[in-house]
Structures
1.
Amino acid sequence: MQLIPVGDAEEPRNQFPPVTVGETLIGEDDIAREMQHHPAEEVAEAWHEAARSLVIRELLLQQASRLKLDDIADEEDRIARVLELELNVPDPTEQDCERFYNANPARFRSPTLMAVSHILLAAAPDDVQERIRQEEAGQQLLSSLIDGRSQFAELAKQYSACESRHQGGSLGQISKGQTVDEFERPVLSLEEGLNPELIETRYGWHIVRVDQRIDGQQLPYEHVKPQIRQYLSESVTRRAFRQYLQVLAAETGVEGVDLELPDSPLMQ
């Protein structure tokens, strides 16, 4: 990485402020190259993520020098050794794991499984008139199903724009994460039987019937304990890493970039 003493640096060539770690300037070219690893919708966001990543790396390398670890040739190994020596991360206790399990029961359930049929009355998201027309048509079809004047499979075959019409509208078995969110959220909350309300998605309007519902069951603690232990360990490590970097930044001095870290590791 190109490290330029502050006194010898030229003025930045772009609209972003100069980024320094102690007496070292992080070069604009280095930030530009790093940006390819931080895709974002806005250039400013990508620049900030790239600059922050390089600042973190430089903080750790400077700390490696203070710890007299420069004899380790590979920079990645040097950084790993710094974290090994400096981060004090306690392992989650059995009580920690049990407490987390008891406080978050919904996270430890098997998925709810549902057999669902639907009739899709298709309309493009930006075609307001067609969506109004299809909603009115859907209400009429739904009324005929509720009154018993029509059969679901027959209406699906005649009116549905989904390929499931060839199976009487059946989508088969679905669970969380298998369909689009605006369909999944209301459907997974339904009980068995015909839903008396239309469901709107980007594709149009849906008449939905739940043919079978098998609710998820609470998973036993022993079954999920390894998952909980790993999650808590990673969470504590991230928190310790953030705190450690904040101390390093305060001691070394960081200018030009916000070092507030998200809840995910920036250094692999």
2.
Amino acid sequence: MKHVHVIGGGLAGAEASWHVAQAGIPVILHEMRPVRTTNAHQTSNLAELVCSNSFRSDDPEGNAVGLLHEEMRRCGSLILQTADKHRLPAGSALAVDRHGFSAAVQAALESHPKVTIQREEVAGLPPESWDSVIIATGPLTSPDLATAVRELTGQDSLAFFDAIAPIVNRESIDFDTAWFQSRYDKGDGADYINCPLSEVQYEAFIDALLAGEKTPFKDWEQDTPYFNGCLPIEVMAERGRRTLSFGPMKPVGLTNPHKPDQQPYAVVQLRQDNALGSLFNIVGFQTKLKHGEQTRIFRTIPGLENAEFARLGGIHRNTFINSPRLLDGVLRLNQRPSLRFAGQITGCEGYVESAAIGLLAGRFAAAERLGLSPPLPPENTALGSLLRHITGGAVTETFQPMNINFGLFPPLADHDSRGRLRGRNRKAALSQRALADLDLWVTQSTLESPVSA
């Protein structure tokens, strides 16, 4: 049987390769690192987590991304299986030891009898002899391939900036000031480190952010928009002095044991970043401040005065295609159906969403190789609603990256005795409907003989 080629070894490419291989079809996974590096990656590992180590909420009833987690688990997702095995304390969120996670994903693919990993850059469009290709090159697609796609489609790529949060050595945090607690004591109740700020300290911090020296943009980057779900902290501060205190620095659901009678005006939270618990990333602190400015400004945060940084924040340019205009319903390029796209390059945003589209691309490619019509996930599911959004549900003229959210789901027809369901009850009903429909789809569209990751 002919190979399916997957270009890109990130979350989407790894997930796509797994599902093709699980269907008994040979797959060649092309990853350009370490032959060619990027400005954001630090290793040559497959499925490296570049920004945060969090897959966000793991609540399947109250949060759309948590529902997407559960749907992917039920589909045999390599990424979710591995994340569950390497999870770290993070309240109601799913956070992982980033190094253990990526190493395990790579080991699973390296040991799979149907997977061949080739470390090479695919510069330009793949040859015509590759009759089934999944392009999962992510937001850091090599310039040659990006140029080739633009020339083929006649469409300009869209782009946005993504920023990386800094990581702090735990032993350098002052616990005479900081304390462990999750908001509203979720999870184990003590999954985050909290650093409190008074109003005076918060205002001084905002002043420092606004005045801090930022990384300059290149001329061709000047008009590139940010993605609102991953704004640099100083950009949030520019939008209003209270923006951060109502965002990543909100003090709600927390009690300072050092000063139980004083409610902090704002709180900086840090989340565990490795299995040893020696590294913590600053939640929501993506930044384009210069490294020297980061060290100076972040050490003004109470509890971080002597912080040692294992990694400082950074910024890189992400690219994505106008998927609703360019792709058909099973992620194939209209101009050349032998090419599929998956992951963040399609305009979905987030680790889990990227892996989810990789999962679907892999299943679609496997079904076609087996001579079957690729079965579409029901639109009532998180997988189906996300797929529909990027393949035609979004307005092409204003298309921008999107996280999964319940607003993408078809509305409920059911009503309770008081009228239409609202709030968490509505979300729970949407999730129950989604999982019931998903289970039926999985049963009817099974392609593989499951192999444990």
3.
Amino acid sequence: MSGILGGKVAIVTGGGSGIGEAIAGRFVKAGATVIVAGRNRERLAQTARAIGANAIAADVAEEGEAASLMTETVSRFGGIDVLVNNAGISGPVARAEDMDMKEWDLTVAINVRGLILCIKHAVPHMRRRGGGSIINMSSLMGLRGYPMRSAYTATKFAVIGITEAVAQEVGPDNIRVNALCPGAVNGELMQRVIAARAKAEGRSPEEIIHVNYTEKAALRRWIEPEEVSEAALFLASPASAAITGDRLRVDAGRA
């Protein structure tokens, strides 16, 4: 699929590391002009240099910054064709009865408010462009609930609902909206979740990984960020031109 995004302008929020970095790098290889966005200026700049992208610092949970991200992209690069709403946090690992509501509110602010703000301010630019593709990062936990993860699960269920609703709103403008639902993706974020679960549940990280993740997957392994990036490329490209309002699992067949 080399060159399949030639001439396209793509924004990847949360693009400084992990899945976002992998998606941004894959889009660059596919010919797109890519903007990585996030709150950590230094990390963004390093990532952009490494993969051949452009960096714009923005806290997408703040409406003014989300709007500025879109207007600056259009001003510098001519338009917006693809938006990947990847910015997010894992949220508290806790039982509902022990929930820190400040952590809950922060999880909702970044994972849900930030996503809808980016959609709100990107859609008018995409409409003027004649269409586009919006890819919202949900999760396997956006399809089923998991213990100790009610905050994250709630936000990722919300992402699915937003995806289905907005797809109906903007379909007549040739804008497609889909959700990616990765399973357990290898990397820094997942390692933090495992460590938190181990502390909260009194089990070893190795037991949690084996029992709760790899042994529950048909392929008996983690997902790599690059595998998620290939799915994102499919949803961004003309190869998925007739697909909207849908969710795509990338989870190694996890039960």
